Amino acid sequence: MLPTEHRLRRREDFATAVRRGRRAGRPLLVVHLRSGATDPHAAGESPPPARAGFVVSKAIGGAVVRNKVKRRLRHLVRDRLDRLPAGSLVVVRALPGAGDADHDQLARDLDTALQRLLDGVPPTRGQGREPR
């Protein structure tokens, strides 16, 4: 389970990550990352934790399949939260092939996408976009 303080819940947070963050696409998922805190924190106060949200549409499959994919993605992201800068917003959007993928395939795609975003490697043609 992803701890409550690490969950994206508000629509505005999802929109910020998707519209103003960087994007890395893989065959099974797309990861959007908005690095760092958007609001400066008070002196002496700890920075906000990295937070993650998930988008799993009906294109993935029925309710059982969608929930299975969400559970797997939450588990995978939970284990990788320590790699993310404090205050980061992450949105993981599952693509239609994710419903048939196993845990290891999802983990590989997530690791590759996060590594690309965290290393600052410019996206290849058709993947990612410049922030606005």
UniProtKB/TrEMBL annotation:
Molecular function per GO: 3'-tRNA processing endoribonuclease activity; ribonuclease P activity; tRNA binding
The entry's keywords: Endonuclease, Hydrolase, Nuclease, RNA-binding, tRNA processing
Lineage: superkingdom: Bacteria
InterPro entries xref list: Ribosomal_Su5_D2-typ_SF, Ribsml_uS5_D2-typ_fold_subgr, RNase_P, RNase_P_CS
Biological process per Gene Ontology, one example term: tRNA 5'-leader removal
Pfam families in alphabetical order: Ribonuclease_P (PF00825)
Cytoplasm keyword on record: no
Subunit-level organization: Consists of a catalytic RNA component (M1 or rnpB) and a protein subunit.
Functional summary from the UniProt entry: RNaseP catalyzes the removal of the 5'-leader sequence from pre-tRNA to produce the mature 5'-terminus. It can also cleave other RNA substrates such as 4.5S RNA. The protein component plays an auxiliary but essential role in vivo by binding to the 5'-leader sequence and broadening the substrate specificity of the ribozyme.
Family of the protein in this entry: Belongs to the RnpA family.
Protein's UniProt name: Ribonuclease P protein component
Organism annotation: Streptomyces paromomycinus (Streptomyces rimosus subsp. paromomycinus)
Gene assigned in the entry: rnpA
